[in-house]
Write a structure and sequence with these properties.
Layout (H helix, E strand, L loop, with lengths): L1 H25 L5 H13 L8 E8 L4 E8 L4 H13 L4 H6 L5 H5 L1 H8 L1 E3 L6 H8 L3 E3 L2 H7 L12 E8 L2 E9 L9 H32 L9 H18 L3 E8 L2 H8 L1 H18 L5 E6 L2 E7 L3 H17 L8 E8 L6 H17 L5 E2 L1
Parallel strand pairs: 10-11
Antiparallel strand pairs: 1-2, 1-6, 2-3, 4-5, 5-6, 7-9, 7-10, 8-9
Helix pairs in contact: 1-9, 2-9, 11-12, 12-13
Length: about 375
Amino acid sequence: MRKDFKQEYQKAQAELAMLYEIGDAMHTTLNLEEILYIILTAVTSHAGLSFNRAMLFLVNEKEQRLEGKMGIGPDSDEDASAIWSHIEKHKLGFDDLIETQSKFEHLKRSQLNKIVRSIKLPIKEESGIMALAVMEGMPFAINTEEAKQKARNELLEPLNLENFVAVPLKVTDKVTGVIVADNRFTGKAIMPNDIRMLTMFANQAGLAIENSRLYERTVVLSNQDSLTGLWHHGYFQYLLGEHVKMSASKKQCFTMLMIDMDNFKDFNDGHGHQAGDAILRNISDIFRDVSRKIDIIARYGGEEFAIILPNTKKEEALFLAERLRKSVEEKDVMKGLTISIGVASFPEDGEKKEDLVSQADKALYEAKRTGKNKVCT
C-alpha cells in the first residue's frame, strides 16, 4: 500500500510540475497567436500531454458560433513519423518546441491548421459535441459508437475525428472556447486521467487567452482615433516603421497611400463641425468597406488619412487607390466631396519611413495641384 501511495504521489508531483512549466510558458507573452501555439504544443508535446493532434476553437459571442483558430499535429502517418523522429533525434523538449524561430512556418503548410481555421460552428445542440461542450461547460470523450454518432457533423468530417475528447476553455463560469484532442496516428486510447489532465490544463489556458484578449482590446482602445475608430497618427507611424523593418528583412515590398479630402474646409465652414464629423465617420466606413482585411488604415490628422497596403506592388496599389477614390466619389453620404491620393512604395520610393511619407506627400500635393479627385505617384 505504501509503495502504491508513493507512486501516486510521485505521479501527482510530476503532473503539477508539468502544468507549472506550461503555465510559466504561457505567461511569457500576451500575443494571442503565440499563446495558442504554446497551448496546442503543450497538448501535443511528449513533454506535455502527449496527444497526437490538438485543435483550438474560440467562441464568437456576437455571431454565437465557435471559430477554428489553430490546429497542431501531423497531416499523415508519414508526417507523424518524420516529426516524432526529428524530435527524438534532437532530444527537443517543450521549451525547444515553443522557442524555435520557425515555430509558425509549419502552420502555414499544415493542412490540419487550414481545415481548423475554415470551421465555423453554430453554438446549438444539433452542431454536435463541440457545441455541447460550450453549452454545458463540461468535457466530452468520444470513444463509443453511440457517442461517435452524436458527434458526427459534416463541418468536422475533414478533420477525420474518430476517438477524441472535447474540453471547454473556461474563465470563471464563462466558456470561451474548446480544445479538441485525439490520437489519430498512434491509436492510443484516451484514458480518464488524460481527460482529467487536459481539463486542468484547459482552465489555465482559458485564463491566458482571456488575458491576451483584454490586452489586445486595451492596445486597440489606446491607439484608436476616437471619432473614426481608425488607428491614430502615432500608432500609424509605429506600424509603418515595423513594416519597413519586416519588409526589408523578408525582401518584400509594400505601398502606402496618403489621402486628403478635397475642399473639406469649405464644407466645414458652410455646414458646421458636426456635419464635418459625420463626413469623417462616413469616409472611414468607406475605407474599411473597400479596403482589404490586411490593409492598415489610419486617420493621419484632420481630414488626412493614410493606408498601408502590405506586400503590394505599386501597380496593384494604384488599382486599389483608384477603387477607393471612385467609391468616395459615388457615395451619396459624402455630399459630393472627393479625395486626392498620393502613392509611394517600399523600397523603390524610399527605404526609410520618413522617405516614404515624404514621397507619398509629394504625390498627394501633385494630385491636389493638378485638379484634385485623382491618384498620383
